[in-house]
Amino acid sequence: MKSVAVEQGLTPVKEYLQQQGCQVVDMTGERQQPGVCAVVITGSDKNIMGIQTVVNNVPVISADGLSPEDVYQRVKEYIH
């Protein structure tokens, strides 16, 4: 299964995704790790464009206002 990169500070989301069988990696913000199918960000940083340039055509999911379950549903859309 492809990995999901999760921004620091989203521990409940990270733990829920792992419980659902997702391979979760920490988002470093420097270079995209191979095999990552989506990136989950806190949404508190309004400069999403800067993040998207790092991600290179990988969907960016803002966790702002979403439960861990909601984030997982969005991630599933990109995994399948």
From TrEMBL:
This is Uncharacterized protein family (UPF0180). Pfam families: UPF0180.
